[in-house]
Amino acid sequence: MFLFRICRRPGMAAGVGAMALFVTTGLTGIAADVRAETTVATTRHFSIPAQPLKGALRQFLEQSGIQVVYESSTAQNMRSSAVSGDMTPGMALARLLQGTGLSFHFTASHSAVLSKASSSSIMLGPVRVAGAAGHENPRGPGVGYVAQTSMSGTKTDTPITEIPNSIYVVTKQQMLDQQVQNLAEALRYTPGIYAEGMGQQTNGAAAGFGSGSYKQRGFSSAQFIDGMISNSEVALDPSFIERIETINGPSSVMYGQSAPGGIINETLKRPTDTPLRNVSVGFGNWNRYQATFDVSDRITSSGNLKYRVAAIGVSQDTQTNYVRYHRVGISPSVDWRIDEKTDLTLIGNYVYTPEDGAYSSYLPAVGTLFPGRYGRISRHFFMGEPGWNNHKEVGSLFEYVFSHQFNSHLTFQQTFRYEQSKTNFSYVYYTDTLAADGATASRQGFAVPNTTRTASLDTRLMAHYNTGPVKHTAVAGVDFWDYHSNGQYYSSDAPDINVWAPQYGSFVPQFGYPGMGPANADSWSWFGRDRYDQVGVYFQDQIRYKGLTVTLGGRQDWYSQHSWSQSSEPYYGTSTTTSSPFSTQAFTWRAGATYEFGFGLAPYFSYATSFQPQTGTDAHGNVFKPTKGAQYEAGLKFKPHGFDALFTASAFHIDQTNVLTQDPDNPNFSVQSGQVTSKGFEVSAQANVTKDLRVIASYTYDDARYSRSNNTVVPYYYDPTSDSGGYHMRAGDKMSLQGKYINAVPRNMTSLFVNYSLPEGTIQGLEFNFGVRYVGSTYANTANSFKIPAFILFDTGLRYDFGKAVPVLKGLVGQVTISNLTNKYYITSCGTAQCYIGQSRRVYGNLSYRW
């Protein structure tokens, strides 16, 4: 009798990365048993993409030396699962046969026989095979709270423990348990990222986010979709996202221009290998109503053509008066296995958001962060004008992902995406400090219509080859993106408002263009067109020898920008036109090493660089060079055998150089002698502790400062007393920026989230979750003249599977989630003397049905 050694996670959710393993007995001869057992015990590296089963078995023979015998009709029209990573041949073959209904047994040291599973076969539930690293779909949802592989770190299917830098995955299960409504909520428990201090109040809506929305290791992060930068001004809805990965640290070698703090990569939903049918209706405070559906299935009986359609419709008010959120969206996709070596996936996405729920106005620091004349300004207070403050968005994208495997050594991959967005924002917002009377706030009116479109293409060859005992996974590619923006900006003054007794209706638009009234004394307009182009050529080699993996990569980028703008002050009859063509280039590289011990511990070290273009010239007419980022990172990753968890600890030091700072000899110009430094460490744990318990936890320490600068800044101080007896902020004397902390970057953050299912025999089908988030104090402005206090927020939820108690209700699940359980009033970020209020208690319920 032959025995597979398996580590089973009882009750683990089915999905990508889980597998049903069929084991049969009846081997003939003790000698065959011994030879086969020896073969199965030998660990090898496998890289076999999902494809028709016949092709997968040929690649299995090439990579293992084991011949698999079967009748031709047995494997007809069947497809294999993907296999990647170091594992035994028996484990690899079991993974290939997942979901086919086939079993196998070894007949000799280098041969095996396939057969249809019989009633005597042993069928196990979803399991992770012990020692089988990296066998999950790197674009899939993960299992529970743990993902083992990533495409984002290297653009190859690589176990996270082999990647020499910090990568954190927000799995689909985590997003479902927390019922996230936007990207900010999905990132709340991710190390190294501050997602609360956004440049606008989202009010629980999926409002559009700019490049400065999140701070990642002290720097503004960039957002990518399926490995390519996204410049859309319309946010991707969480209903269309399969997983979210954050790469902390410089990522230019694989992705081109980006900040040294890292990037956020969102993966779109694709057709699933097994049928998926799910519908839901939701409800919550602020009059939220939501409906979704997500359906995936085969189009052809063989399964070579599959589809998926996800859609959402939502309507809600927000915590701010007169601000609402309405959205409908759909994301269809089709996967076509053209032949056993060729695959094509087509993805579309469209969202229409007549009101995006964003409130793009600060409130006075006095009355929010500091005591106001009459207490604290309500979270419901609206600084704008009813009927005028509108955020309308339309966004769409088309993407294809193509792959062709020439042989077991060489694969061609290409991804193309075209996306466009149209936004029309009109708003009245707070512009200055509160007046000395402690009540009067000045305002400004704006209208900002804008259109963007981006075309991106990433083409690469991936090669697997050996040089003696050393294994290589090499990638060589070229990517390109072209971005166009056509924007307008109209401004005029607006009447002051009393923040304690607001009176609306007196604002009359006077922007000086048709339909917006005549120009007034403070009207101003701007028209602009921008075009950005980037071409990058990159190379990477992952070199493996036993437990050691060395990753080397380099990239050359060429970047160009052409901006045209015209500004005018209609009232005064003045007009200015500018045109600024600009081009630059940059070389970035990285090197890193990890060593994985047999018990799952993997220490690593890496050095990586990044770049970001800058426009303009110095006093002598020289074009500014791109900023450069450089990071040293060292850490430990631990993937214990027999325990479904991933632990990460990392320390980092980032320097960003070529930062613009004031020219001491020509104060009206800049020089590139500035520097920003961020250093700290992160600790993270993601674990499916048992079938009933899932946990994520993290701690981040980040010391981010302006380490060199000639700039000066004006501090503001809270002044509760004045000649008029008011409450306001007063300006101080200029001070040097050098040595100051970067504002809106907490030095300390920690979080914990636990989901627990009551064991069988109690109340079957009932789950609870609880989370706590601590955000340390931050400096409110670059002068570091006042701080935003630390805050602690609590989240909780309950889920009930009705089918566990009443079989006829199988597939029906109810869920309620509460964020900011205590309804804490807190401040997320501030400007010179203005602040944003955090989200109040949000209650959201959902009833879903899956069949």
TrEMBL record:
<dbReference type="Pfam" id="PF00593">
    <property type="entry name" value="TonB_dep_Rec_b-barrel"/>
</dbReference>
<dbReference type="InterPro" id="IPR039426">
    <property type="entry name" value="TonB-dep_rcpt-like"/>
</dbReference>
<comment type="similarity">
    <text>Belongs to the TonB-dependent receptor family.</text>
</comment>
<feature type="domain" description="Secretin/TonB short N-terminal">
    <location>
        <begin position="66"/>
        <end position="117"/>
    </location>
</feature>
<keyword id="KW-0472">Membrane</keyword>
<keyword id="KW-0813">Transport</keyword>
<keyword id="KW-0675">Receptor</keyword>
<keyword id="KW-0812">Transmembrane</keyword>
<dbReference type="InterPro" id="IPR011662">
    <property type="entry name" value="Secretin/TonB_short_N"/>
</dbReference>
<dbReference type="InterPro" id="IPR012910">
    <property type="entry name" value="Plug_dom"/>
</dbReference>
<keyword id="KW-0406">Ion transport</keyword>
<dbReference type="InterPro" id="IPR037066">
    <property type="entry name" value="Plug_dom_sf"/>
</dbReference>
<dbReference type="InterPro" id="IPR036942">
    <property type="entry name" value="Beta-barrel_TonB_sf"/>
</dbReference>
<keyword id="KW-0732">Signal</keyword>
<keyword id="KW-0798">TonB box</keyword>
<dbReference type="Pfam" id="PF07715">
    <property type="entry name" value="Plug"/>
</dbReference>
<keyword id="KW-0408">Iron</keyword>
<dbReference type="Pfam" id="PF07660">
    <property type="entry name" value="STN"/>
</dbReference>
<dbReference type="InterPro" id="IPR000531">
    <property type="entry name" value="Beta-barrel_TonB"/>
</dbReference>
<protein>
    <submittedName>
        <fullName>TonB-dependent siderophore receptor</fullName>
    </submittedName>
</protein>
<dbReference type="InterPro" id="IPR010105">
    <property type="entry name" value="TonB_sidphr_rcpt"/>
</dbReference>
<keyword id="KW-0998">Cell outer membrane</keyword>
<keyword id="KW-0410">Iron transport</keyword>
<keyword id="KW-1134">Transmembrane beta strand</keyword>
